[in-house]
Amino acid sequence: MKVCKFGGTSMATAASVTNVKNIILSDPDRKFVVVSAPGKRFSGDTKVTDLLYAAYAEQQKNGDVIRLLDEIKSRFVTLATEMKVEIDWDSEFKTIYDGIARSATDDYAASRGEYLSAVLMAKVLDFDFVDAAELIKFRKDGSFDAMLTNDLVEKRLKHAEKGVVVPGFYGRLPDRTIKTFSRGGSDFTGAIIARGVAADIYENWTDVDGFMVTDPRIVSDPQLIDVLSYEELRELSYMGASVLHPDSVFPVQAGGIPINIRNTFAPEKPGTLILKDVSGYDRPLVTGIAGRKGNTNITVAKAMMNDEVGFCRKVLSVIERYGLSVEHVPTGIDTMSIVISDMRAKHVDGEKLLNDIRGMVNPDSIEVSESMSLIAVVGHGMANTPGTAAKIFTALWKAGVNIRLIDQGSSELNIIIGVEDDDYNAAIAAIYDAFFKA
Ligand code: ADP
Ligand code: ASP
Ligand code: MG
């Protein structure tokens, strides 16, 4: 049996919801459906999830949530009318108005897009609606409780007679409040359900033909990846390939369940298969290229640093105190760099952090740049093939891109390159051309 997750674009309009319906009803094995909130209907449109975050912010600012919630309501009313199903939206939205007014965080508000989307889809399909709050559980400290969740999903869904629709993106804390995953988290919900019901396959339906070698918004019409390993998927999605939430791999890996990325708007295409073992497939040297901008790079220099026992630990302890996670720590004899991805997002006071490092290790100099892009070139094939790095560096050199950092993971599954944000697109395009157009 199959678990199918449909993303925001698939849930955005009556035309796309009709595709979703046809896809599910064309195969009786498609028994478990996970949905996102409706996404953009056209370029410039706003995703329902973003409207909900904005509604919560308005509520906090001036207690007024009606205007934005009415906008969302009218989208659902239109969808239901066009899909010819009847739902008591007045009562659903009354509960949401009250719930948002009572919420201490924006999680409840944000989760309602998925909730309403699932209510709608269950009606359209005549499937049962099962609330994610009953299945997906977090611990008191906010961490996801995989064991408890897996038990609940198995008990509640595995032997379900009828098809089931579950909202993506959220679950519940022990105090019964709603908590969401990070953005794009419906992919993770789909993977959790797939593991819990021991699905034969996890189909992730989106708005592109599959996982592409690189971001189609940077390189036009990049090659499609036919087969990807779990490890490659993790590297690429963690490093920025936004097709799948980076945590999605864990539940399916634990259950040995293949993922199939498919296009809701071209269901006849086979999409990308993500498997545990890809050794039997004929695959290119480099499987994919992904990256993200806006990382912070702090470079600390001090003569004879290498002789100073505990130097790195002291610097890192400051970073830890600020709750930041370290991505890379390239070191030289007298220099140490720390690359951090979430400094901007966490609104850390950079000056204060640098002063703390100064106080701790008394460096000769300390520099910070907030515009470093990290790019990962990923592929199992790179490990045994000399010259891969040379090919990447030559391509970047020819494109006039200055390399600021190089790191090769010990698994030899990836090579990470740091460049200036301004060079990000050119660097991705140059690496893509070197491996896929030569
Ligand atoms: P959904 O709403 O279905 O979850 P997302 O917008 O989260 O869809 O993810 C699909 C989008 O990911 C595509 O429309 C594409 O723009 C973007 N994307 C980024 N990197 C890649 C890649 N390597 N391959 C395919 N799509 C990618
Ligand atoms: N709707 C949520 C978001 O926009 C979750 C998801 O689509 O996966 O991030
Ligand atoms: Mg997504």
UniProtKB/TrEMBL annotation:
Entry-linked SUPFAM superfamilies: ACT-like (SSF55021), Carbamate kinase-like (SSF53633)
InterPro entries with a match to the protein in the record: AceGlu_kinase-like_sf, ACT-like_dom_sf, ACT_Aspartokinase, ACT_dom, Asp/Glu/Uridylate_kinase, Asp_kin_monofn, Asp_kinase, Aspartate_kinase_CS
Molecular function terms, GO-annotated: aspartate kinase activity; ATP binding
Enzyme class per UniProt: transferase
Any Gene Ontology CC annotation: cytosol
CDD domains: ACT_AKiii-YclM-BS_2
Residues that, per the record, bind substrate: 49, 114
Domain ACT per the UniProt entry, residue ranges: 377-438
Amino acids binding ATP: 5-8, 206-207, 217
Annotated metabolic or biological route of this protein: Amino-acid biosynthesis; L-threonine biosynthesis; L-threonine from L-aspartate: step 1/5; Amino-acid biosynthesis; L-lysine biosynthesis via DAP pathway; (S)-tetrahydrodipicolinate from L-aspartate: step 1/4; Amino-acid biosynthesis; L-methionine biosynthesis via de novo pathway; L-homoserine from L-aspartate: step 1/3
Protein function: Catalyzes the phosphorylation of the beta-carboxyl group of aspartic acid with ATP to yield 4-phospho-L-aspartate, which is involved in the branched biosynthetic pathway leading to the biosynthesis of amino acids threonine, isoleucine and methionine.
Name recorded for this polypeptide: Aspartokinase
Organism: Candidatus Stercoripulliclostridium merdigallinarum
Taxonomic placement: Bacteria, Bacillati, Bacillota, Clostridia, Eubacteriales
